[in-house]
Amino acid sequence: MKVISMTGCFLVCAMLTVAQSFQCGFEDYLSLPNGLGEWYRIRGVSNPSSDGQATPDYFHVLGNASCDLPETPYAMMQPKEGQAVMGIEVSGTNEAVQREYLTILLDEPLQVGKNYEFKISWSNGKLTPISNAGLAINGIGFFFTEQMTVQSSTLPIINEPQFTFSRPVFSETWVEAKIQFRADVAAKFLTVGLFGNSGGRALKTAARSGQKVAYYFFDDARIDPLPDSLDLSEPKIFDGMINPIEAVGKDEVFVPNSFSPNDDGLNDVFLSNPYEIDGWNLSVFNRWGSQVFQSKSAMEGWDGKFNGKSVEMGSYYWTLIYKNESGRRSERQGFVNVLR
Fold it and tell me: Is the whole-model pTM more than 0.90?
């Protein structure tokens, strides 16, 4: 039985009763990392970004500055195996224009029509008080291709991957994703990330309020052949989560009836959500019907100012349009009191 291995990942291996299998632990490096975005120090990985604005991160126990483990700018993280991991900002709060992808180079192409099992461990790490990561996201995809996939700057890769995990994934510990499939392309590359425009596939769920980034660490990847007798006309995929977090329902938008924009850090902003909501359009009007605020981002609320100056205390009329969980347009309106 022949095993497809991943270039530059031969330091960690395990003998199985059936055949030898190579695990990819991102251990074969050219040099140790000194800063974020130094994916090029690892053999066997690449960055799809055409201008290098989106850059996978390489972390190592013996690294320097912000890239030594276990403490990273995103979370505390110990490798699943060995001493190294890779990480990418799958999506930020401005998900339409802020994506990173990781490409792994296969040692030799998959054989079309053959069955395989792909495994990779992923984790969000243990958050610290200064972590800006902490968002979970659904729709992370795995894209097997013959040619290197290209990303335009930080924009989404529009191609549809063969495999997508539909539910939000968030875990402070390592969990193992698994895909059993029949190869439909003689792939030499595997690209991981959030593909396509935001739509309903990029619904983010906050692990805690105020977080800005959906960041994922990866380790211990492998591809093994499976018997061709297995019926994999439909792939079998498992994200590794036993008790996954639930997506935040877009029908559940809480609108307060008052707020106090006095810069005391408590209830200073009207309708600021920790996640994006599709089709969001919030408008606020004074008692004469003049618009004093508008936002098309669910994460950008009203700070009680108009043209840079604080508005008077009193009642203001608001209208809100957004798409609910089923993708249908919802409209709401009401009054909010500005208190000081």
Answer: no
